[in-house]
Amino acid sequence: MSTRVQKIEVGSPEHHELMKQAIRAKLEQNPDVLKLLLDTGDKQITHLLKTPDGRTLPDSKTIPGAVFSQILMDLREEFRKRISDREFFN
Hints:
By secondary structure, the protein is mainly α. It has one domain. Helices cover about 55% and strands about 0% of the residues. The chain is built from 3 helices and no strands. Helix 1 (about 15-30) packs across helix 2 (about 30-40). The longest helix has 25 residues, at about 65-90. The protein starts with 12 loop residues before the first helix and ends with a helix. About 5% of the residues are buried.
């Protein structure tokens, strides 16, 4: 039996999609965290890395802040639609 392993380059679109899948699973398993995300409404989400004393750090090379923020906003909309569809069909 052979197992096929797909290599995913760190920082690639495939890597970002894998991260999106992982965050989606986390939100599905943590309704309190999902509620916090949904409670942001339609606000723009930003992600800046900072030190404990407040200094801004360089952006991540693997998941840049803009990509991470967009993943969160996309998932927020996805879950909002899923919840709306569920209410519509119940």
